[in-house]
Each structure stands twice: as C-alpha cells, then as structure tokens.
C-alpha cells in the first residue's frame, strides 16, 4: 500500500464531499492561484485512498492544474454497502465517470484521468466505457492485466483472511506480508496510525471484490489502444505488482508517453512526488497545448 509522507493538506487544497449522480465521494481538491489550465481526477489503488496523492497536490497546483484526489466507494472516508456486487469493476468505472462529470467546469471541459495501481485498471475500464469526459489517461504503476504471480499469492491469502477474520486481525497478519522494500523505511507513528485507521475504515467486501479483479484482469491493452485519447504510462524504476518491462511493453502497445521515476517503487506519487508531479504536468501541458 502507499504510505503518504504527510497527512497535512497544503494551503492550496481543501477536503470535502463531491456530490455526483452516483452519490457523494470524499475528496481532496487542490487549485492553483489563478484559473486552472485543466482539472485532473486522481483515483487510488488497492487498500488506498485520496491521501496517497497528498504530496502531489501542491506540485500540480503550482504547475497550474486543479487536482482532485478521491476515495472510491468503500474506501476510507467514502462509505459503501456491505456486498461484493457493489464493487465490480463496472460499478467502480461508472463511479469514476460520474466523478469526472461532476468536476467538469461550466463549459463541460473534459478532465485528465490518473489511476494508480488498481485505480489504473478501474480508470481504463471507465475510458473504455465512455472516453468523452476525459482529455487524457495516465496509468501509474499499473499493468496490462493481472498482477504478478508473487503478488497474486499475497492477495489470495488476504481474500481468504477477509472471509473468515475481522479487519483488526487481518491487519496484524497483513503487516507480516509487507514486501521487503516497504519494510526498509521506518514509518512515522502518525502515518502508521493513519494506515491502520484507513484499513479499519475500508469495507472488507470492497477489498475482496477488487482483490479478485487484480487476480483475473484480462489484457485489454488492444482495446485501450483503439481509443483516440492521449495516454501516459508512469512507474517507478522497480515494481512488485507489475514488472517494469511489462509496463514498458504496454506503453509501446498503447503508443503512450512513458515516464520512469528513478528511486521510486510502486508508489512514485508518495515516494517521489516532485518528479512525478513534474512528469504529469509536462504531459498534461503537451496534451492541452
């Protein structure tokens, strides 16, 4: 999971609930000093939340973009029902479409869409369902199909545990399964407490349903390549969920812009936010030029 480096919103951002035709979603909304060049919707990944993008907000606003990070249904501060059917990929994609429509300005300008990890798969599904609300798609640390074999084992164990144990017990067991790169850096107490709180706030059926999606996601790159929308693939220099060469090949198949963030792993948004923000702003600036 992403570990945000801070929980303090920058002065350019505020927290509120975004009303859409599919309900209200908790968001962090950052705006530049003047009129924004465009609006970007940031969709978090598995076990994630809007806080995963908190370090990106100020760099993106400083570059002239409005950036809105969202908790999806059943994630952290956005409630969701206790039932797996509510969390199919199709339902989550419709949520993203509704969020994008709610963020369009009075002129109906489309938004830049970014999805991290699982959020990349959901964002892809939203674009394939209806690309009209979007001016570009960025997939951040997200691959062409199911996650790597080693991570599939971890996710299966997690799904099994969620089916029999309470969330607190699963949390304790999950800590034992953290990848080595996650264990290398000490987590500040306030961040550790937030991660624990976020986990307990997340609807277990959301985790079960989305975990299964990551295990069974088909390769839909050819379908996405046929959508006439600018595309961007970003990853760290290493990734435990999808091998970096696999994302390189996906970018080629998509004819997408490709960015590798050095010294970053699966969460460049949290690990190297300045470099990630600069890459996003440059891509979106080119799209809007």
TrEMBL record:
Q: Does the keyword Secreted apply?
A: no
Q: Which residues form the AB hydrolase-1 domain?
A: 41-276
SUPFAM superfamilies recorded: alpha/beta-Hydrolases
| This protein's UniProt keywords | Hydrolase
Protein name per its UniProtKB record: Alpha/beta hydrolase
The cross-references to InterPro entries, in alphabetical order and at most eight, read: AB_hydrolase_1, AB_hydrolase_fold, AB_hydrolase_sf
Identify the domain of life.
Bacteria
**Which Pfam family is one of this chain's hits?**
Abhydrolase_6
Q: Known PANTHER family for this protein?
A: HYDROLASE, PUTATIVE (AFU_ORTHOLOGUE AFUA_2G14860)-RELATED, MONOACYLGLYCEROL LIPASE
Q: Which organism is it from?
A: Streptomyces halobius
- For whether the record's keyword set contains Iron-sulfur, the answer is no
Gene Ontology terms for molecular function: hydrolase activity
